[in-house]
Design goal:
- There is one protein chain.
- The protein has about 120 residues and is mainly beta.
- It is built from one helix and ten strands, in the order βββββββαβββ.
- The chain has a five-stranded antiparallel β-sheet with strand order 1-7-8-9-5. A five-stranded antiparallel β-sheet has the order 6-2-3-4-10, with no helix packed on it.
- Strand 8 and strand 9 form a beta hairpin.
- The longest helix is centred in the last third of the chain and has 5 residues.
- The two termini are about 20 Å apart.
Length: about 120
Amino acid sequence: MQPEAAGWEGKLPLHLERPFQLWSYQAAHRQLLLRGRPGDGLEGTVEIEFLDVLGMKVKSQYRELLISPAPDTAAEADEFIELPERHRFRYTRLLVSDGTTDGFVVCGSLRVHCT
């Protein structure tokens, strides 16, 4: 999985030190969008777009955002999503956190947009 934006390609884990909020979830398109807005001395908007989402456990707001591959020992996503073994290669389990509370997203790809 490769984040797609200038300066972010292939860089997991991501650590973004700005507030983020859940901006939208489109069930029909299986797309989740988290947005970090400018303000408090931070310029530009950063959008984290998860595509082909099978399942997630995320907060509505994060004081900062950390995204990394979920460790093999993270069974919560596997217990939540019944994914046949033959399809596991198409999806990635990602740990989504603010440093204190962990959640997850199981998705096909991740894109980072900076404006």
